[in-house]
Amino acid sequence: LxxxxxxxxxxxxxxxxxxxxxxxxxxxxxARPARALNAVVLILSVTLAWLxxxxxxxxxxxxxxxxxxxELLGVSSSASKAEIRAAFRKQSLLHHPDKNPDNPERAERRxxxxxQAYKTLTDETAMENYRKYGNPDGYRGTQYGVALPKLVRSHxxxxxxxxxxxxxxxxxxxxxxxWRAQRHKMSSSVLAATYRMYIFTLARTAxxxxxxxxxxxxxxxANSFHPGRMPALIFTAQxxxxxxxFDIKKARYLFPSEDWMTQGLIVLHAYTSRIPEELPLExxxxxxxxxxxxxxxxxALIDS
Length: 304
Description:
By secondary structure, the chain is mainly alpha-helical. It contains 14 helices and no strands. The longest helix is centred in the N-terminal third of the chain and has 53 residues.
């Protein structure tokens, strides 16, 4: 059916230019989904890499910022002074900058914290400050934080995985589905097949009755036919013929017709002819759909 509709174009220069513009637009529409998905995948990959880096960096900072003298020295809370002193000597030798030439800066930070932990466990004032404020140096000013809900604090990793699933899977799938739905449309949201059918029809005739045939054959109305409307269509077609407004048997299509095309043609003629009989309720949604797209498809007909 599509090959029959696109078998030939008018040979005039204007129609050939429209043909070239239509084919170029169709190629562009086919290429857009792939380019868009590639861009989305690239952006999401960079975003996920940045997010993972930030999470790991935050975990490392949190681990370094947490001050637990017993953990730093590797002793229990009931350790004696001799055990604390022995643990300090062991840890200070282990983390001394001179013993860690590969990463002296990190070793120095660890060495300072080990010394701070030893001071906390051996100095009564420092220990008292640690118990009150979590820091051997005492109160260090007002601290501000973000009051996160308890659910977020207790299920942080689950929510992070859910977020990554939405961003990394659901969002690309939704974008891909949207592009698949839009790839058959031109920039004006008119289906490319409808544009091609308009060009095919107008290249052969410009009669008003054939313009109505082309309009009701627009692919935007495809699959709108329902067998339950057949009695109402027969009634309306007979009313049009009886009043000499329109005879559906005399309608001439330049391509094989389908039921939804005939349905639209009968309803559109009933609307424009103002037949005395009221349009049956079953056909009123068809009329509403034909009128709703009149501006968009009418402009496309003119452009064709």
